[in-house]
Amino acid sequence: MSEDRSSNGQRSWLERITQAFAHEPKNRKELLELLHEAHENKLLDNEALAIIEGAIQVADLQVRDIMVPRSQVISIRANLTPKEFLPAIIDAAHSRYPVVGESVDEVIGVLLAKDLLPLILRDSHDDFNIKELLRPATFVPESKRLNVLLREFRANHNHMAIVIDEYGGVAGLVTIEDVLEQIVGDIEDEHDVEEDSYIRPLPNGDFVIKALTPIEHFNEYFDTDFPDDEYDTVAGLVMSQFGHLPKRNEVTEVDGYHFRVLNADSRRLHLLRMARLDTPRRRDE
Description:
This protein has ten helices and twelve strands. Helix 4 (46-58) packs across helix 8 (176-184). It is globular and about 65 Å long. The strands form three sheets. The chain has a five-stranded antiparallel beta sheet, with helices on one face. A four-stranded mixed beta sheet has the order 1-7-6-5. The protein has 285 residues and is of the alpha+beta class. The chain has helices at 2-7, 13-20, 28-40, 46-58, 63-66, 82-92, 146-156, 176-184, 215-222, 234-242, and strands spanning 68-69, 76-77, 96-100, 107-112, 139-141, 160-164, 170-175, 199-201, 207-210, 251-254, 257-264, 269-276.
C-alpha cells in the first residue's frame, strides 16, 4: 500500500526534496532557482521556502544589520537602588539588561530579571549589591556574520551580546531571538499582543499593534479616520509612509502618530509600537 502511494507521488517531504536536488546547483543563484522550482511544484510550502531562504540569507547579514541600536538599548546603572531601577524593568518587561558604570560604554555585566526575584523576600534592600547578581557580558563587533554569531550563541549558551563599534564604544545589542527571527520570522515575545486582540495598551501610554490590524478596527479604536479603500491594514498604511519594507526599530510618523517597527522580517511587518505625538513619552522608549 505504501509502495503504491510512493509511485503516485505521495512520498515524504524529505524524499521529494532529495529528488529535487538530484542535479546539484553550482552556485547560490542556481540553488535559489531550484528552491523556487520546488515550491512551484508543491514540494515546498510557503513557510518552508521562507525558512530556507532565511537560513541562506543569514550568512550574508552582519550584526549591524539587525542589532538594537544604542539609542534604543535599556540599560541599568550599577549605582542605582532597586527602587530606582525596578520601574524601568517592569515597564520594558525584558528578560536581560546590560548593567553599566559611569557611562553606557562601560558595560560591567548582564542582569537577568529572574535573578531579582529573591528581592521579594527581603524586608530591606540596604545591603543590595547589583554586582553580585551580574552574569558576564559577551561582546561582538558590528561586522560579525550572523551565522557565526548564532553558532557562538549555541556553543556558549548565551542569549544576548553587546555590540561594539570600531572605536570600542557600545553600538547596540543583539539577542539570539533577533538572529532566529531572520530565519523563521516572527517569534512570540514580551511585546506580542494576545491572540484574539490587535492592539495592546502599554503603561506609559503607547500601544503595541499587530501590523495586520484592519484600518477599520484601528479607526474605531482610536477614533481616527484613515481611509480603508487604499490600504486594508495598518501595515499597508505604515509601509506607504516608509516607501519600502522597513526593518526593526525604523520609525515614521503618520498624521500625528509615531510608529516604530518592533518586529519585521524580509517579507512582512509583524508588530508596531505607536504613540500619539501630543502624548509625552519616555526618552528611552
